[in-house]
Amino acid sequence: MTVRGQILGLAHSDADVIEFLRRAGLPDAEGLLDDPAWVMWRGGRAHHYEAA
After folding, report:
1. Residue span of the structural domain in which 26 resides
2. Mind giving me the DSSP string for 1-52?
3. Number of separate domains in the chain
């Protein structure tokens, strides 16, 4: 996962994404997961984390 050009890590679940966003200063990140202005899903469908 990348925030503002900085690599934060690899997310394996929505909980990981929420934690990365929280560490980036967005405490209410859960509501942002489906907002394309905040989260861009790459490499597959949103909320799916299995290997490609």
Report:
1. 1-47
2. -EETTEE----SSHHHHHHHHHHTT-TTGGGGTT-TTT----SSSTT--S--
3. 1
The predicted-structure confidence for 10-51, as pLDDT tens digits, reads as follows 899 999 999 998 988 888 889 999 999 888 888 888 999 877
* Backbone phi, psi, residue 13, to 5°: -165, 165
Is residue 16 situated within a structural domain?
Answer: yes
Look at residue 26 and tell me if it is in a domain. yes
**Burial class (CB within 10 angstroms; exposed 0-12, middle 13-18, buried 19+) of 43:** exposed
